[in-house]
Design brief:
Blueprint (H helix, E strand, L loop, with lengths): L5 E5 L6 H4 L3 E8 L2 E8 L2 E7 L4 H15 L3 E10 L9 E9 L3 E2 L15 E2 L13 E2 L2 H8 L7 E8 L7 H11 L1 E5 L2 H11 L3 E9 L12 H18 L2
Parallel strand pairs: 1-4, 1-5, 5-12, 6-10, 10-11
Antiparallel strand pairs: 2-3, 3-4, 5-11, 6-9, 6-12, 7-8
Helix pairs in contact: 2-5
Amino acid sequence: MGKSPFLLQVAMEVECSCLLKKIAHLVKREIGGYLFYEGMIRNYPVVISLSKVGLIEASSSLTIGIENYHPIAIINYGIAGATTKELHVSDMVIGTNCVNINSYKSSFSPALGGVHPDKWELLTFLSGETDRFLSYSSDEKLLALALGNPPKTNYLCGTIGSGDVWNQEVDRVLFLNEKYHILCEDMESISTYTIAHHRDIPVISFKMISDNLLLGEEYDREVGIYLQEYVFSYVEKLIGNFL
């Protein structure tokens, strides 16, 4: 493709169908069981990676994408469930950082002592290092450009929680927000941030709220249409200011 592209990672087709219509010279490729859409925005190459849902799928597809396209930056985007009452369906989160909500250590409980999720401590398990809670940050320049090009909808900046879990227990959702200041949760972002961190590739994530258990707002997977418009305008801004 010549120049190193921006790689846009998304889990579901409904989260990229509108954006694909805006990409010039679109070419669809399948590599290792995953779909990649190559094209141009303002004459600069972009690749949309359709990762499928979940941490393993996101890790596998992103690794393939990096090895094949050598992206200059990674933009993860999609829908997510809110973990705060301050966000409604169709509001947005600009991710400043990302944490793994599926990696935790429970407190000791004897037989018949019950299960106590409120005592589960988020923890990153590290080979050869002391296990500790890790938070992976968005790239400072990518974040600054996002804040300089804010969405037209209501939005918050903060922590994205990510894991192979769909939390439906109000107390658990509140626990994640109150103790770890998590604004929303998805099933891919932590894979993206971890791999980007290890590969030293700039990364950022944008999430549009699809449901809010705390407010009784039910799941709507179609809300990401505006987010796709925002991502397109954001990439246009990157082309003029990030390179």
